[in-house]
């Protein structure tokens, strides 16, 4: 399998899930824009290379992104994985790495883009929500969708428990998506739709809540 870099800003629970899913050997570097990100501690104690590029030290988004790009290129990654990276990337950056950057968002895109997607879904009283893994383009939370996982919003859920159900789903879905990309099973078509090679057991039903759909 190829290698990838992970970009984080805070907690890093998805990073942890990737490591627990057997992907630790494929992670070339964890990069954080926040020197105090908890995920950095986890990476260090797990023996993963870390880099800090503190955005406060850069005069503009473009200058920060240039430094980020230089750092990423040191590792020649097959994939750039955003996992709670709380910065909008400039279009220059995104276009340089076309079809190489992925993100996970805590809603069924294109619904509930931007911050607090779980709360937006809860307050809208939708009956199902979930998480979406997608390629990153210069339109926020709108790139080609790779996979979605579904969480029914049952009556007993609070905004907090809904958010943790979605996060639990992310932790199984995102590593699965990364593995599929690294093994060449995910293809972006000319119309920007995604086709995934499916193998037996891919569309996993986990307990009564989790269900993935690969595009
Ligand atoms: C997750 O909710 C993910 O959907 C969003 O950022 C959060 C990252 O959490 N993109 P963590 O840092 O991986 O714990």
Overall number of domains: 2
Strand content: 15-25%
- N-to-C series of helices and strands: EHEHEHEHEHEEHEEEE
Unreliable stretches (pLDDT < 50, length at least 5) are none
Reported for the largest beta sheet, the result is:
9 strands, mixed
Question: How does this model look, in words?
Answer:
The protein has 215 residues and is α/β, with parallel strands linked by helices. It folds into 2 domains: 1-97, Rossmann fold; 105-215, Formyl transferase, N-terminal domain (Rossmann fold, 3-Layer(aba) Sandwich), CATH 3.40.50.170. Helices cover 33% and strands 24% of the residues. The protein contains 6 helices and 11 strands. It has helices at 13-23, 38-45, 61-73, 91-96, 117-124, 159-182, and strands at residues 4-8, 27-32, 50-52, 79-82, 101-105, 128-135, 145-152, 186-188, 194-196, 205-206, 210-214. A 9-stranded mixed β-sheet has the order 3-2-1-4-5-6-7-11-10, with helices on both faces. Helix 1 crosses helix 6 (159-182). The chain is globular, with a radius of gyration of 17 Å. The protein starts with a strand and ends with a strand. 5-O-phosphono-beta-D-ribofuranosylamine is lined by residues 8, 10-14, 83-84, 104-106, 167, 170.
Q: Keyphrases for this structure?
A:
Rossmann fold; nine-stranded mixed β-sheet; 2 domains; binds 5-O-phosphono-beta-D-ribofuranosylamine; globular; single chain; 215 residues; alpha/beta; two-stranded antiparallel ribbon
